[in-house]
Amino acid sequence: MSVNIVRDIDRLVKIRRILVSVSDKSGLNGFIPSLVDINPEISILSTGGTFAHLATVLGKKADRNLVQVSDYTGQPETQGGLVKTLDFKIYLGILTETYNENHKKDLARTGAGQIDMVVVNLYPFKQTVARPGSTPEEARANIDIGGPCMVRASAKNYLRVASVTDPADYTRVIEVLRKNNGSLDFQTRFELAKKAFKHTAEYDTMISGYLHDVSDERLENCYSFQR
Hints:
The protein has 227 residues and is an alpha/beta fold.
């Protein structure tokens, strides 16, 4: 298997385009306007309920700064939000390396752009299974797929991308951006990546533990088998 081993990177990365898709919307009302204040030209890609929330938060600025992911990718969301962000343009934008000429050609070929920050936290699986009477089917439906993929992709590419998974980090990110004229430094990106991988590891461990404890009877009671 061939992999890209990178040598040349930027210590400071200007945050020009971000992707925001969160279940926990706490802190967004201060975080997002601060990002726009730091860089009035910033482009914010978002989906579903997060998009609607940010449109309210930004008000008139939404027309300039906020973009539906479906408009960016050219692919509408599927019913129930089943597929929203699992798209080549999204992952090319996250994973592309700054000084890779082949990646630059791919960006040009697809009309994609580099995504510099991913702000994602995951479906509330823990809260779902903790509810009295919750079923394995409700648990299954609340297993996040696109979120962990975006978190892992952005954390892998800490060379260029900030992976922000915890609202408690919003203030710190804003402070660093203000200090560096709208750019994030390498060390901050790496620290965020470590936290992001811990976040997805804990999420998968929680799902695995829950499924391990589901009895066959409880599982089959969720469904009406058609054949």
